[in-house]
From TrEMBL:
It catalyses: N(6)-acetyl-L-lysyl-[protein] + NAD(+) + H2O = 2''-O-acetyl-ADP-D-ribose + nicotinamide + L-lysyl-[protein]; N(6)-succinyl-L-lysyl-[protein] + NAD(+) + H2O = 2''-O-succinyl-ADP-D-ribose + nicotinamide + L-lysyl-[protein]. This is NAD-dependent protein deacylase. NCBIfam families: PRK00481.1-3. Its EC number is 2.3.1.286. Keywords: Cytoplasm, Hydrolase, Metal-binding, NAD, Transferase, Zinc. Coiled coil: none annotated. It is found in: Cytoplasm.
Length: 254
């Protein structure tokens, strides 16, 4: 993609002291991981994700919710990081300081080589006891056949016998305080922020790009859909992250 990028953005990347990269489900789309809205395809399509990703849903129907998360976890195990994840990992070597903040619960950033990843919404790979919160480490690590729509009985905590739950932040649950504070601090300190593959719907994560813009940072959104921008230092780069990000790195650093 020999696209031209705004000079304000290229200059900001070349001279940044502290860059924040903020990602949503769209950065994993080209790895074949359905975005949150698409995640309810097939047999789950009759459910609303915001209804299924809640403590109430798990309490009411643990086998349905656990089956959905195990299907998603198997898809992540079978997936590979895409060119966007690799470009973000490479960005770490191009700038003095990069803070990566993700809303995603997959580990594709880590598998692409990103060294520090702030997970605002937890991880599919950190199940814990619903009662005593003890981490449950013995989930199968082989990507099985992700059977869509299959109910699964969650394992039992080895410490207290209660059910194990996914290690994600559900709707209505607080985000991990330290992760949120670190993300807010980075957004207020940075001089450039790339927001990649997010619909900017879910709070409080969606505040991150706004905080950066209000602190004077240059902000660019990477999304196949146009993102509404405000002012001369905010940009919407339309296209898939796996195409736009490698081109942006080439334009800025080659
Ligand atoms: C909280 C983990 C406060 C789970 C997720 C009523 C009741 C209760 C709460 C609320 C309420 N109303 C509002 C709220 C707050 C609520 C909220 O924001 N709701 C929304 C729906 C309005 N927030 C919360 O509940 C949060 N907690 O507020 O607690 C509180 C206060 C006091 C006491 C107690 C609590 C917790 C929110 C965290 C929820 N967990 N994930 C799981 O994954 O199962 S959020 C989940 O959805 C994802 O993590 C993601 O962040 C979000 C959106 O998912 P998607 O839409 O799929 O992804 P994304 O937004 O990233 O969109 C995809 C984008 O990619 C699109 O724009 C698309 O165009 C683009 N794209 C596609 N392909 C590509 C691409 N981009 C680039 N390249 C491509 N190739
Ligand atoms: Zn327990």
């Amino acid at each position: 993609m020999s696209a031209t990028f705004p000079h304000v953005l290229l200059d900001a990347l070349r001279t940044t002291r502290h860059l924040v990269v903020f990602t949503g489900a769209g950065v994993s789309a080209e790895s074949g991981i359905p975005t949150f809205r698409d995640a309810l395809s097939g047999l789950w399509e009759r459910f609303d994700p915001a209804q299924l990703a809640t403590p109430e849903a798990f309490a009411e129907d643990p086998t349905l919710v656990w089956g959905w998360y195990e299907w998603r976890r198997m898809k992540v195990l079978a997936a590979q990081p895409n060119l966007a994840h690799h470009a973000i990992a490479e960005l770490e070597t191009c700038v003095p300081r990069l803070t990566l903040v993700t809303q995603n619960v997959d580990d594709l950033h880590e598998r692409a080589g990103s060294t520090e990843v702030i997970h605002l919404h937890g991880s599919l790979h950190q199940p814990r006891c619903v009662a005593c919160s003890m981490p449950h480490g013995t989930l199968s690590s082989a990507p099985g056949e992700p059977e869509e729509g299959r109910r699964l009985e969650p394992p039992r905590c080895l410490h207290c016998g209660e059910r194990v739950r996914p290690g994600v932040v559900w709707f209505g649950e607080m985000l991990p305080e330290s992760a949120l504070q670190a993300a807010f601090a980075a957004a207020q300190d940075c001089d450039c922020l790339l927001s990649i593959g997010t619909s900017g719907v879910v709070q409080p994560a969606a505040m991150i790009p706004q905080l950066a813009a209000e602190s004077g940072a240059v902000v660019a959104h990477v999304n196949p859909q146009p993102v509404s921008v405000h002012g001369p230092r905010e940009f919407s780069l339309e296209g898939p992250a796996g195409v736009v990000l490698p081109a942006l790195l080439d334009a800025a650093f080659q």
